[in-house]
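Entry for the shared binder. Reason: the reviewer on the internal report wants the predicted structure included alongside the sequence.
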Amino acid sequence: MPNDTLQQLSDAVDRLVVTNPEDVAAVLRAVALLDAKYFSALREYDRRRLYRQSNYSSTQEFLELRLGLSPEDAAAQVRAARASP
């Protein structure tokens, strides 16, 4: 996803106003879609061993050192990504 698309998504989130239950449901649906996209991208990153391009030894190490996740959370993210469809 190009950086401009990520910026547009970030801007849209900043403008988001939740005023009723339908808005909350819409946000939850959007979060579920983003989670699915994240785990799909992470699974592909792991499968293709793209972490090697940045001199990491594993996807878990990338998540820990680059994104600041704890070792436990990074391991859980990798397990979830590998288990995702």
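Summary line for the report: Residues 36 and 84 are 8 Å apart (CA to CA).
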